[in-house]
Amino acid sequence: MKWSPRALKFALNIYGPYLGAGIRIMHIDPEWREMHVRMKLRWYNRNIMGTHFGGSLYAMVDPQMMLMLMNRLGKEYIVWDQAAEIEYVKPARGTVESHLSLSDAQLEDIKSKAAGGAAYRPSFDIAICDLEGNVVSKVKKVLYVKRKSPQA
Fold it and tell me: What is the CATH number of the domain that holds 21?
């Protein structure tokens, strides 16, 4: 199913896990080149130490790269989340945000490496920052990309 950026933003902002964690999609580029995500610290998304719950920090950037890549590559490709890791750099207090991007150069590289029909696993480094720009968490996402076989 193909979503418009506006429809996907609306759907994600009312999606139960995002709504429950206080995660908000602030912007989706009309060309699927970037997404901005924000999460305020609330009583329901903080841990016992009074900082952001680590699962919520990861959830705020979980599907974005896959969604952007799916929409940029189109129906000729299979795109799945394959793996991820998160590093907590410093305690996350207050509002945090992430600006995820997928450049034209990255897209062309992925297309060229998946052109022969073999699976390609690009990785993306994503920073989650406080409003002062300090990195609070680093996420590495690995996607699975494969060009579909042509239909006979």
Answer: 3.10.129.10
Beta bridge mates, 105: none
Number of H helices, E strands in the chain: 5, 6
Strand partners, 46: 52
One digit per residue, the tens of pLDDT, for the chain of length 152 reads 578 999 999 999 999 999 999 999 999 999 999 999 999 999 999 999 999 999 999 999 999 999 999 999 999 999 999 999 999 999 999 999 999 999 999 999 999 999 888 999 999 999 999 999 999 999 999 999 999 987 54
Q: Is this structure's pTM higher than 0.90?
A: yes
Q: Domain of 141?
A: 5-147
